[in-house]
């Protein structure tokens, strides 16, 4: 994945003639519908002869001389290569499981400790009490993490703490016990 950059994806979008526009912080949005991107991805999978199986639980994965052998609920599948896109652990309600992490460990891949990212910050008393009157107020700000990473965007005061684009972005750089400045 490291070899496939955002520029490669933008080139793909352009080849399919999907019109888009840029919002703040380089965020790109389809002029028409995000369904166009879904359709593009499905078409690319069809061109690549990708086999998609839905509602198939992977029970085990074994490395073979020819690639991989997967035991699914109800069948066995052989593949020359394997792409695992199992999501993260943050949303169990959406079916998130530790499958991808366990598989990486099974094959000796380095697994980094997980932590929340793209999340709001919750405040504790007395800071929460001091900011309660601001709940619902959004203000422009520059938020900087201890490593120097910063984002210039809005902060939204909520009934639990801080949210908004700047906070959600900086949360990926913040370390527990660390400080963010604005």
From TrEMBL:
SUPFAM superfamilies: FAD/NAD(P)-binding domain, HI0933 insert domain-like. InterPro entries: BaiN-like (IPR004792), FAD/NAD-bd_sf (IPR036188), RsdA/BaiN/AoA(So)_Rossmann (IPR057661). Residues 2-122 form the RsdA/BaiN/AoA(So)-like Rossmann fold-like domain. This is Flavoprotein, HI0933 family. It comes from Serratia fonticola.
